[in-house]
Amino acid sequence: MAEIPEHLLKRAQQRRAELAGEDNAGEEASTPANADAGASDPVATEGASSPAPADSGASLEIPELTGIAATVPRHLIERSYTRRAVLEGKTVAAPSAGGGAPAATAAAAPAAPTMTGPGGNTQRLLTVVKSGSIQQTKAEAQDKVHTWPHLLSIEFGAMVIVTCGLFIFSAFVRAPLLGLADINQTPNPSKAPWYFLGLQELLTMFHPMVAGVTIPGVALVILALTPYYDKNLSNKPENRKYAFAMMTIFLIFWAVLVIIGSFFRGQGFNFVFPMKDGVFFEL
Amino acid sequence: MATETKSKSPKDVMKRTWERVHDSQAMNSIFRPGSVFRKGYTDSPRNRSYVIMNNVLYHLHPVKVKRHAVKVSYTLCLGGLSFFLFMVLTVTGVFLMFFYRPTAEQAWADIQSLETAVYFGSFVRNMHRWAAHLMVLSVFLHMARVFYHGAYKAPREFNWVIGIILLTLTLLLSFTGYLLPWDQLALWAVTVGTNMMGYSPVLRTNVQFVLLGGNVISGDTLLRWYVLHVFLLPFVIVIFMAIHFWRVRKDGGISGPL
Questions:
Q1: With contact defined as beta carbons under 8 Å apart, do A223 and B166 qualify?
Q2: Which domains does chain B have, with CATH numbers?
């Protein structure tokens, strides 16, 4: 048998002692003694201390209840017995008014099994369970659709469009392949890949350590830590004006730098106009 | 059925053959319940669930998603397309690997002959290059989309951090690939890019030395970046992508609605 935690055993003992104290003083002595002795078998103890439940008498007097029956709330027991008394009063009263057939039922009533509850029902109230402990709706029902076909069809469509676009673009636009790499022949201008041209643009303004390491490093860290310093819980645009402004400035800042680096920088990385001086840009 | 006289008309023969194929053990063992290739496909909620549950790729998805999550105007498909472009790049990249040797003597000539002497060589190389640029763009736009929807907020904070790592890895993958054609564009773009790394605090030019396999870009750099580009970085990015996708599910699907 599984180990029963110490605190649960103790609580059970206390409760049992309380109940026994109410109804049967004799039991109080025996039950805790059993448990204290280390009898790790409360079921056996329970079985021993719960004899026949509250069906001992159908008298109008409320009898002493023992065992499990003793755990039924007092007011329910009282209500049950009061009701039963009322019903019995009726059946007793009936013969005097009518006689004949009703009298027969009246005569039969005392002979009926004593298991019956109020109104002659044969079930017993075992426990009262509050509704909250059974039904807990934590999450609200969400409006959901099946992934197939609703999501998969959209994904498929997007993939087809991108694939077609890529096919067509690749068929007509060739990837650049310049002459063989030559470490002794520096092209003018030399440009980094387009996504690093923002950084190269910063190089014209700052020391390489600032432009190439500090600024991008700090930017990435700040970006990564966004969820930890943005304490605004709302995801509604109207509640996030500051965040929107900061991110938009950030994105536009890089976009502008990349565009300047890509199209407005010519020989010697000097400022040029693409319309006038031509484009110095390879993808 | 057995007692019926079998019609010999081509249409009936075709129909019977089709049924026999569909009923065969082979067919039923290949296609799991829910597959449209299986006999008895029905468009029922049960079968719609099977389609997702019984397919290893679709299984990335839950059986059901929030209705707002399938709106194209919400996600613009950017995350999914980034992943799709990664797969396109893997496939085209494997093709390119068949014709490429990462040495200073052979690399450029290999690309040259790939462009001129290999069926679809130029086309596949173009695809690889444009898909790479497109992936950088789509990953970047995906980040912007996620930010503007506030999707990085609890409980998705850490998935945002993984997303930034994925963005960085994407840039590194693109940058390492940039050197491989070994032409003037590649050499000098990488020279400009890596010169900045020599100014890292504390480590100084050690960073540059480790990355380049020497003080200047050489054939050693080419081999080093090739290994990074075709093996190490894809390996790492796949792991982070797996965590990224898994966490999307664990955090209750995509965010929203606004």
A1: no
A2: 20-60 (no CATH), 67-250 (1.20.810.10)
Separation of alpha carbons A191 and B55, rounded Å: 46
**Burial class for A154, CB neighbours closer than 10 Å (0-12, 13-18, 19+):** middle
Q: ω before B257 within 30° of 0 (cis)?
A: yes
Strands (DSSP E) contained in chain B are 64-66
Q: Is A194 on the interface with B (CB under 8 A)?
A: yes
Closest chain A C-alpha to B223 CA, distance in angstroms: 15
**What angle separates helix B121-148 from helix A241-263, to the nearest 10 degrees?**
150
Residues of A in contact with B175 (CB under 8 A): 193, 196
Does this model's pTM top 0.90? My answer is no
- Domain A186-277 fold is Helix Hairpins (1.10.287)
* The predicted structure's pLDDT at residue A254: 95
| Mutation target vs B (from A150, A160, A172, A235; most B CBs, 10 A cutoff) | A235
Q: Domain ranges in chain A?
A: 1-49, 69-129, 186-277
Extended beta strands in chain A, E state: 144-146
The interface residues of chain A toward chain B in range 239-258, judged by CB-CB distance below 8 A, are 240, 243-244, 247, 251
Cβ within 8 Å, pair B111-A163: no
Classify the C-alpha dihedral B234-B238-B244-B248 as positive or negative: positive
Contact A52, A59 (CB under 8 A): no
Q: Which two tokens stand for residue B176?
A: 């390492």
- Do B147 and A227 make contact, defined as CB atoms within 8 angstroms? no
CA distance A94 to A105: 10
For the ranges A182-191, A263-272, B154-163, the one whose mean pLDDT is highest = B154-163
Instruction: Give the residues across from B183 on adjacent strands.
Output: A180
Cα→Cα distances B120→A42, A175, B58, B114, B125, Å: 80, 13, 30, 9, 8
ipTM: 0.89
Contact A269, B162 (CB under 8 A): no
pLDDT in tens, A128-160: 777 666 666 667 778 899 998 899 999 999 999
Which of the residue ranges A134-138, B91-95, B134-138, B171-175 would you say has the lowest mean pLDDT?
A134-138
Query: Which residue is closest to A168 within chain B, CA to CA?
Result: B127
